[in-house]
Predict the structure.
Amino acid sequence: MFRFLKNSLPRRLYARAALILIVPIVTIQLVVSITFLQRHFEDVTRQMTMTVITEARLLQDTVAEQGLAEAARLATGLRIRLSALDAPEAVRNRRVFYDISGLTVIDTLRKELTGIGLIDLASDDRQLAFSLATQKGPVLLQLERRRVSASNPHQLLVLMIFVGGLMTLVAYIFLRNQLRPIARLSQAAEAFGKGRTTPYKPSGALEVRAAGQSFLDMRTRIERQMEQRTMMLSGVSHDLRTPLTRMQLELSMLPPSPEVDALERDVQDMSRLLNTFLDFARADALEDPELVDPFGLAEAVVDQHRRTGGNVALVLKGVDPEAECLVPLRAMAIERALDNLVGNGLRYGNRAQVTVEVFRSAVRFTVEDDGPGIPEDLRDTALKPFARLDAARNQNAGSGVGLGLAIASDIARSHGGSLRLGISETLGGLKADLAIAR
């Protein structure tokens, strides 16, 4: 029961607040309508109908004692039109379906007045007509409807609806002003999760202001930490490049030998490690996103690997050549992530395939290869920095430093997305889905 109610309730804050606001007002309106209108106006209608019943009995007796003509003159004084009927009317009720007070009128007439036949409330909504049996034959009595029903119940209904709608509008405007700062805080947090820093100033109630200020402090600390991390790794890498450059110069001046060749390979590996560390440090850099064509970006990465002899295929899904598709991305970061994924695929396999799909709320880059893949129980570990799963991959293809997938995962998270690993149904190797939120 509670799970059904939870799933049925709206999920947005504005909708839930409106529901909390509207339900009590509607409940009060219904309670007042049932307890006041039904009881009060039913009693009023019944009392007014009893007055008409008393007059109808008087006319019934007058017809029996003095004749139809005298009863007609008396009825005129009572504001009732009395006329003779050729034949008695069948016992039936005529009422429109929305005439609620008419039910009380009919029920009271049937119970309190003998000899009544037809009761007509439908032919004219301003008139009540009913047939009555007398000793001189059946007669038809016609009178104004307002003599048996309260004439102004709709005025109370209109007043209730108007006041309720007005108060609902005032409360909604006030509530919207209170919820707007929360929505702005949510938008700022969502943008920061996607790597974008948007202007935000705390406003609203004290609790909302406190939450907004805490968010600003947290954002500042995260940005400072990321900047310090980038500067530290960049500084360390820069300081290490100087001795590496001297070593390369000194080795180039030595005569060729197996030992010198081995040292040159070690120096090249160290230089490659430094470049990888710099890429990992830049992965969290909060550069401003720009409108980028994801298809063109993926095509540039594929062309770069093709020029170096890589067997890479590019698949574009849902592409309209005449329509320009621009998505806010940090182009250098996405290009770095795709380059790492394609490089990993070619390092551990012979072929790779890049698929680009653009959806309404996300962009997905899928990189597949024909290598050995990664077992399911090791995929979470493979996304951690410096994790090397050479036992699960091709040992003969060369060894990395364990940062390629970690860089791609960090770049995806900085865009509000994720990197998921699986099995390629097309090539049979590793499948890496780089999903980026738009």
About this structure: The domain at 190-286 is CATH 1.10.287.130 (Helix Hairpins).
